[in-house]
Amino acid sequence: MVEILWILLLSAILVVIVLKVFPVKRVIVYEYQRGLRYRSGHYISTLGPGLYWVFPIFSTIVTIDVRPESITISGQDVISADGVTLKVSLAAEFQVADPNVAVNKTANFRTGLYLSLQMALREIVGRERIDAILENRAGFGAKLMEISSKKASEYGLKLISADVKDIMFPGEMKKAFAQVVRAQKEGQAALERARGETSALRSLANAARMMDGNPNLLHLRALQALEVSSGNTLMLGLPNGTVPILKQGEKSAIPPSKERDKGEG
């Protein structure tokens, strides 16, 4: 019995000595991370979230964040196909898809992606004329994704989105575009005025044709105008002469003396 206790005691002392000489390290890989296990400097495997124990002398675990990240490229001077210098900025979103490639195969995957997007932007804008750039600005994102996605995968990354944030023109180009827009708006306004005048003339012509075919329409229209008017005297041409039509409450336009003469006659 005593011998067994001595063996257990010696074993415990030996374990303590080993742990002192070769300490064990606890490593936690969180849900948003992946762990790269190395043994004697060589990559062994990629670890998922969890708790791991390693001997730092022999092996180590390096964690890498795999959450989506944003990258911005601002103020790039780019020359279009017709020789206009533009300042173009874009924003992209990516995440680490293969930690082994992103860390072990690339010195700096963020810098690599930045340069890839920059070159793709220059390539796209350099092939287009200024008018096409303005008309198809929304389509640049799809072209950037198409060109840059393959290069991003070589860095162990997944390109989620890429869009043009802003396109800035030189001062003289801004004035020229403002003049073009103003001319377009003035032309549209003139066109609308011409359409309105044409419609009004067409309505008048139709009314004239209707009155030529039925002269009584003219008198009916006059009576309608008298109904909505105020303080006006309307003279109608009748076979026996013109007769004033007075609205209720208005005085006669014929002098009293003439009215008496007509009565005596």
What does this structure look like?
- With 265 residues, the protein is an alpha+beta fold.
- It folds into 3 domains: 2-65, no CATH class; 69-169, Band 7 domain (Tetrahydropterin Synthase, Chain A, 2-Layer Sandwich); 174-223.
- It is built from 8 helices and 10 strands.
- It has helices spanning 2-21, 99-104, 109-126, 130-135, 140-154, 171-213, 216-228, 256-264, and strands at residues 25-29, 33-39, 42-47, 50-54, 59-65, 69-79, 85-96, 157-168, 234-238, 241-245.
- The strands form 4 sheets. The chain has a 3-stranded antiparallel beta sheet with strand order 3-2-5.
- Residues 256-265 have low confidence and may be disordered.
Number of helices: 8
Beta-strand residue fraction: 25-35%
CATH-derived architecture of the largest domain: 2-Layer Sandwich
For the record, what CATH class of the largest domain applies?
A: Alpha Beta
Quantity of strands, as a count? 10
Which properties best describe this structure?
265 residues, alpha+beta, Tetrahydropterin Synthase, Chain A, 3 domains, three-stranded antiparallel sheet, 28% strand
